[in-house]
Amino acid sequence: MAVCSALQDDEVAELERAMSFVRLESNTSLVEEGEPRRRVYTLTSGLLRLSLALPDGRRQITGFLMPGDYLGLADDEIYAQTAEAVVPSGLCSFSVRDMDRLMERYPRLRDRLHLMTRAALRQARETQMILGRLAPSEKVASFLLHMSNRAAAYGRPESPVPLPMTRTDIADYLGLTIETVSRTFTKLKTQGLIRLPDPHSVEIVDKSRLAVVAGLTVH
Amino acid sequence: MALMTDHLVRRYGGLQVPRYTSYPSAAEFSASVGQKDHETWLRHLEPGSRISVYLHVPYCRQLCLYCGCHTKVVRRDEVIDRYRETLEAEIRLVARRVKEPLRIARLHWGGGTPSILGLDGLRSVLDSLARSFDFDAGLEHAIELDPRFVSRPLAQGLAALGVNRVSLGVQDLDDIVQLAIGRVQPFDDVRSAVEFLREAGIERLNLDLMYGLPHQTCESIQETCTKVLSLHPDRVACYGYAHMPQRKANQRLINSAALPGPEERFLQARAVAECFTQNGYVAIGLDHFARPTDPLAMASLSGTLHRNFQGYTDDDRPILVAFGASAISQLPDGYVQNVADIGTYLRAIDEERLPAARGYRLTPDDRARGTIIESLMCNFTADLSILGEPSHYVDELALLRPLIADGLVRLDRHSMMMTEAGRPFVRLAAAVFDQFRADDFSRFSAAV
Ligand SMILES: C[S@@+](CC[C@H](N)C(=O)[O-])C[C@H]1O[C@@H](n2cnc3c(N)ncnc32)[C@H](O)[C@@H]1O
Ligand code: SF4
Fold first, then answer.
1. What is the pLDDT confidence band of residue A3, given thresholds at 50, 70 and 90?
2. What is the mean pLDDT of residues B359-371?
3. Where are the domains of chain B?
4. What angle do CA B18, B24, B27 make, to 5 degrees?
């Protein structure tokens, strides 16, 4: 597990003692927005959907957690977002209290977690960049690149990008209609930028040109 | 330059893109448009409007293996007579729904093999048309013919019926290719067909060629072109073979291992273009060539070329009234396609119903996009300002960026143009403006 990579064997052993494993079925929730933050999680398999309740009662999807991502690290006393499993998922978790205790004893762990927190914040910023784009093609292209880059950062293949969530989830996340999301996938496919081998994965055919569409590179 | 093109062909050659003979493409028509809309839309036609008429005859004596058209083999003459009578009944049915009299400025017989109706059959249909419509004095009267069935009497008879333009299906003149596509048609047959037609006074000739056929090579195609040039056609169309064996059973008999790949197809299309342009023909749009004095060439040079279901045309009348199974009408309100199944078509007309099966109702946004796509396909340029302010087409601008980066497209504020290198890829640029309401791509053909 990623937090362990900076630690000595005895430190890892101690961390493992404090760790517990959680399995989640599809569409069950792990934590609710506003709940006191008691545990910190890291996803080992599956996919989680993060969401916020809007004042009018609707939910806004704010992101997706993929294996390797953390939940609750950057939050304060309460969880900032609701997290639910999109597909059956596995997570490791620590109680916040254990975590604080271990960090005091092992400064390297503290540094490590610090980096993780920074990564989580960077991700949130990237999400804002995706959502801040104007054109649907830019949004979808940068979303795909973001998912692909994160997978690569965890040592998994850049492509195909698994998308086990529904088109509605993606539409909700990007602030687009489902029709626009479907049409945009078709447009990107027609231009030879992606392939759609099955409804739940996207093959990135040409990463640099997809980045040009996303507006992330000046060509 | 050659290297760069190779790279682009590898990148884009295998993609599936509509041919944009209409926007939206027929693949996007739906059953939400039917008989009622067709009736209303016909009633909306201004009395006295000049229109084009298309007559579809979905029968052939035998089926060519490559054929992608709506056609069937027919052996019994009763079947043909029954269809012809129904076609005439459809003409009456439609005529009763328009504020008469509309004036036919262009008439096009397509198929299939329309001459299968026989001279008497053709005359009978023309008489029906004449009873319900006016004919323009300068009527352009065109028919698609299969050279294997063009005799001297047929040519004379067609001329007597007023036919003044003929399109002949040549496809390819190489023996091996002809065997592989199930269309054995020696050059002598084509030459005689041309001679019979000219003798009869039908001077305006188009020859259809194809590239991307099994066993074709650039060299074999150049030989075909040389023979075709010796016939001095006014126009030549050269279509890329669309191989869709899932949808066309006859195409399953074509050995797909013998088909040229995307790069080879690209080179073949270019070889054809070079043959004709180096011999005094003007390249028109994507796949047509015409002698400089031909109206199509003049329309192309003056920027008044249009795209229709037959390919390119100098027909500036946007109204097309089509008869026959699978035929598509283009009305000011939108597109209407007749049911393709012949049995269902016959039954509908028997019951005095318009046989409209599907179609598309145009919105102002569709019209703007259609104008841009048509302009790209015809002139390789487009004025994007008809979509409004640039903020209205940010998505299109985003999708154009890679094409601009590849040097295929140039954009100067709101005016867009294909570069010389970009022209063969114009369908990709056009697809940027397509809103793709339907999601099924298997029916489209390769991009080059
Ligand atoms: C209806 S046919 C023409 C008339 C006549 N039946 C003949 O074959 O001579 C129209 C033209 O469409 C083209 N065509 C037919 N099948 C095609 C396919 N699968 N892909 C591309 N072009 C095709 C051919 O060039 C053909 O001449
Ligand atoms: S190419 Fe022409 S003759 Fe051959 S099957 Fe098609 S329509 Fe009939």
1. low
2. 96
3. 26-361, 364-443
4. 60
Model pTM? 0.91
Q: How far apart are CA B81 and CA B72, in angstroms?
A: 15
pLDDT of residue B20: 94
The residue behind tokens 């009299």 is: B101
Decide if B188 touches A, using CB distance below 8 A. no
pLDDT one-digit tens code per residue, B258-271 = 999 988 999 999 99
Q: What pLDDT was estimated at residue A195?
A: 93
* Shortest-distance Cα residue to atom 4 of ligand 2: B64
Instruction: State how beta strands B165-171 and B235-240 pair.
Output: unpaired
Q: Given 3.40.50.300, 1.25.40.10, 3.20.20.70, 3.40.50.2300, which CATH number is that of B26-361?
A: 3.20.20.70
8-state DSSP, B374: H
Same domain, A102 and A201: no
Indicate the average pLDDT of chain B: 93
In the chain, the amino acid numbered A129 is M
Min distance B18 CA to chain A CA atoms (Å): 10
pLDDT at A129 over 80: no
Show residues of chain A in contact with B401, CB under 8 Å: 212-213, 215, 219
Which numbered atom of ligand 2 lies nearest the CA of B63?
5
HSE of A203, CA atoms in CB hemisphere, 13 A: 7
Pick the CATH number of B364-443 from 1.10.10.920, 3.30.200.20, 1.20.1540.10, 3.40.50.300: 1.10.10.920
